[in-house]
């Protein structure tokens, strides 16, 4: 898969984001997308081939691998990257709708099509809530599937067609565990940034509404 589309999407969203949103884009692009492409993809590339069991019973190794790794780390991480980035499309589509509406009516309808207010503010807040939800959901999924971000060196398997309890060995467990911790840390950082931006926008909107009412009342 070419990640150029995701890179272009993040770069495009950067134009409509707040300062905190731009930090989030930088974190996703540098600490997640680039790390995924440059390093993580290579570490898990041959995880099935490097998974070895102490018996050569036909089918045993495959069944044990599927049991301990029901979903590939790398596939799940790629899905997470896509899912946490796509809510930003809502903002891009809303800005495009505003620009097209102004063009259709041939007059200025908004202070600026890219200015975060009114309907665009609601869309932006919804996109932040979706990002937070996806981040938390994937963290919980990783934690449940992989026993709390742990990658053991040795796992014991007694699933049919294995004739008895079989020792299976996972390659590069320490390296894989470091990247899982890195994944968890960057996800938590993104959650904090999204929550900060959400709080900032709600606070800013509340202050703006209060000042507007205060001014109107004293006039």
Automatic annotation (TrEMBL):
Record GO terms (molecular function)? gap junction channel activity
InterPro entries, alphabetically?
A: Connexin (IPR000500), Connexin_CCC (IPR019570), Connexin_CS (IPR017990), Connexin_N (IPR013092), Connexin_N_sf (IPR038359)
One Gene Ontology BP term is: cell-cell signaling
Query: Which membrane topology term applies here?
Result: Multi-pass membrane protein
| Boundaries of every Connexin N-terminal domain copy | 42-75
Q: Name one GO cellular component term.
A: connexin complex
**Which Pfam families does the annotation name?**
Connexin (PF00029)
Where the record annotates domain Connexin cysteine-rich, the positions are 134-201
Q: Which residues cross the membrane?
A: 21-39, 77-97, 118-143, 178-203
**Transmembrane keyword on record:** yes
Q: Which UniProt keywords apply?
A: Cell junction, Cell membrane, Gap junction, Membrane, Transmembrane, Transmembrane helix
Subcellular location, record wording: Cell junction, Gap junction; Cell membrane
Q: What PROSITE patterns is this protein classified in?
A: CONNEXINS_2
**What's the family?**
Belongs to the connexin family.
The function of this protein is: One gap junction consists of a cluster of closely packed pairs of transmembrane channels, the connexons, through which materials of low MW diffuse from one cell to a neighboring cell.
PANTHER family, A to Z:
CONNEXIN (PTHR11984), GAP JUNCTION BETA-7 PROTEIN (PTHR11984:SF26)
Oligomeric and partner information: A connexon is composed of a hexamer of connexins.
Q: What name appears for this protein in its UniProt entry?
A: Gap junction protein
């Amino acid at each position: 898969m070419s990640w150029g589309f995701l890179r272009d999407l993040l770069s495009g969203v950067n134009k409509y984001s707040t300062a905190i949103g731009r930090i989030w884009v930088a974190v996703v692009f540098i600490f997640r997308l680039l790390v995924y492409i440059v390093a993580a993809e290579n570490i898990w590339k041959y995880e099935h081939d490097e998974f070895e069991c102490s018996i050569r019973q036909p089918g045993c190794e495959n069944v044990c691998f599927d049991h301990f790794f029901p979903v590939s780390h790398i596939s799940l991480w790629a899905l997470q990257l896509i899912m946490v980035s796509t809510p930003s499309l809502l903002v891009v589509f809303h800005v495009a709708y505003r620009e097209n509406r102004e063009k259709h009516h041939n007059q200025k309808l908004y202070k600026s099509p890219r200015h975060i207010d009114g309907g665009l503010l609601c869309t932006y807040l919804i996109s932040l809530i979706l990002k937070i939800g996806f981040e938390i959901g994937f963290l919980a999924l990783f934690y449940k599937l992989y026993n709390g971000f742990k990658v053991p060196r040795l796992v014991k398997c007694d699933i049919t067609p294995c004739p008895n309890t079989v020792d299976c060995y996972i390659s590069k467990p320490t390296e894989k565990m470091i990247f899982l911790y890195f994944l968890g840390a960057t996800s938590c950082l993104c959650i904090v940034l999204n929550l900060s931006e959400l709080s900032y926008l709600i606070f800013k909107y509340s202050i703006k509404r209060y000042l507007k009412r205060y001014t109107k009342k004293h006039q």
